[in-house]
Amino acid sequence: MASPINCLSILVIPLLVTSLFYQVSVGQKLDDAYLRSLCQKTTDHDFCFNTLKADPRTFKASADLNHLGLVTIAILIDTVQVEVDEIPGILKKLGDRVDKSRMENCQYDYNSALKILRDAYAAFSTQNYNGAKSLIINAGNGLAGCDQSYKDPPARTSPIADALTKVLKKRDIAVVVFDTIIG
């Protein structure tokens, strides 16, 4: 019969090995070289590096990959919040019924995305990395309806098309960070 210590070691040793691996990947200290290597996995390497480097939250004293995950969500929240704040002013300037309807739909989409991103931040904070990643992807996908409405006849250029491009690029950054954390 196996002793209780042998049984315990069978359970504890794999957990210790797993936790060591987790600490190595998440405990990665952030520096320019690491950010560059991470950003090489995104569609726009320079945009990724410049976005992360410019945000003062990226390089805290104890900043690691886990911290960077939260920062990428915060960056997305900030970006979407800017558009949520600007859309009412855009709506006031619109006279055309079709344009106004499209922008009202965009307003709904951006408000929904903002809520989803806040939920992603909460999920990430509880170490639900896969859930947070799914929410971030869903938030970006939800904004595609706004973009698509401007492609429908009569096709026009969305006044917030550049903002959507930035959101999707920043979503790409977050997904790469999450994939690295999740392993």
From TrEMBL:
One of its GO terms (molecular function) is pectinesterase inhibitor activity. Gene3D superfamilies: Invertase/pectin methylesterase inhibitor family protein. Residues 1-27 form the signal peptide. Keywords: Disulfide bond, Signal. InterPro entries: Invertase/methylesterase_inhib, PCW_Enzyme_Inhibitor, Pectinesterase_inhib_dom, PMEI_plant. Residues 30-177 form the Pectinesterase inhibitor domain. Pfam families: PMEI (PF04043). SMART domains: PMEI (SM00856). SUPFAM superfamilies: Plant invertase/pectin methylesterase inhibitor. The keyword Nucleotide-binding does not apply. The keyword Signal applies. PANTHER family: PECTINESTERASE INHIBITOR 5-RELATED, PECTINESTERASE INHIBITOR-LIKE. NCBIfam families: PME_inhib. Belongs to the PMEI family. This is Pectinesterase inhibitor domain-containing protein. It comes from Quercus rubra (Northern red oak).
